[in-house]
Amino acid sequence: MTTAEKFLESAEQKVFDTEHRRKLVFNISQYDKKVVEGKKQFSDLELAKERASALKAKVIDNLDKYLIEFEANFIKRGGKVIWARDAKEAQEEIVKVLKRFNTKTVVKSKSMVTEEIHINDALEKEGIESLETDLGEFIVQLRKEAPYHIVTPAMHLSKEDVAKTFHEEKGTPADYTPQQITAWVRKFLREKYVAAEAGITGGNFLIADIGAVALTENEGNAWLSMAFPKVHIAIVGIEKIIPSINDMELFWSLLATHGTGQNVTVYNSILTGPKQNGETDGPEEMYVVLLDNGRSNVLEQVEQRRALHCIRCGACLNACPIYKGVGGHSYASPYSGPIGSVLTPQLWGMKEFKHLSFASSLCGKCTEVCPVKIDLHNLLLYNRRDSVKEKLSSNTENLMWLFWKKAMMKRNTMEKGGAKLKNFMLNQFFKKQWGNRRELPKVAPKSFNQIWKEGHGMK
After folding, report:
1. In Å, what is the CA distance from 420 to each residue of 391, 410, 439, 444?
2. Statement to judge: residues 355 and 284 lie in one domain
3. Tens digit of pLDDT for each residue in 121-135?
4. Residue 51 lies in a domain
5. pTM to 2 decimal places
């Protein structure tokens, strides 16, 4: 099966799974309520979004300058930078570092970019245990699943599902409450933090002027993954750069509000390198892996490069009617929802993933909620345009649109044939594409133009 066929199969299954939809709608509705309250902290939210959008545009347009500035400032305090062109190169470099320190166990905080490069699988092949320490990620790792959502990895599960997973995988009582499960995980992970030789995190932002990685979280697990082990590796996409530490007040509050409805997340850390002389906490060595992995391809696009402004808040997923139906796993990408539908075809190939750009209602809700004002619904249209330019449409589809265009270009051609012939043609060429759960529209016996002329005695 092609990736598109798998998407359709998964989407069909999820959309008509009423229990799945109930869980997803309930969990998203809880976020929606909090986001409404969180937005009240802004005296002028629109102005804040405009400022953030302008800053991200400035950075992406001058990405080389800011990345070099970050690297220079990070190295000054003893940090080490690894530039990785793709997932394979990132995996190889990370494994080299870990082997140098005879690493047996890695504690890892939640990070979509690590999902992107499949670092857990790569480390497992090398005999290195990589343990997710975010509670949601820990749950989906136990279930051998990918994260379901950019912000909330286990959004598709109920508390009963989680209790059942822990009962089956860890032998805890089947009726464990969320509080009891959390306490069990906390005790289990504390032992791992102490024993682990290395910690891996992502990075919400790279701060150019001070050479720092900014982490935002609600559980403290990222901080522990960084502070306890001797080695810390932060894997960050090159687009995550921002100019100055003075911009953090704006971006942290926008991220917290649009991601979880908070004024500010519980733990926010700014990491400027390894432990310095006189400091008691922190790793002895710190590496930042600057990952490209297709981002330069996106940067080349005149319109779609705006997708690199994304701060991964997940707001567009929560707003999207398609995501609410098909769920996160259907996208077969670490980036789901509208932002995933724009980025995935650009990062890993239009040929394999063009269907994601067509899996949209184009309602514009994603654009409306974006904290950095990315016009996502327009970028989806640009992706569709590019898929046609790359001649990725089937011959049947191309022929169908050729005839359609010829018919629509002239009024007398449009009126020819009659309703019977037109309805026959629609059934012949459009029925499969239209889907077996929708009725094809029927062409009326007379067009509005014909009825108007007859009503006004015109020929």
Report:
1. 32, 20, 16, 9
2. no
3. 999 999 999 999 999
4. no
5. 0.91
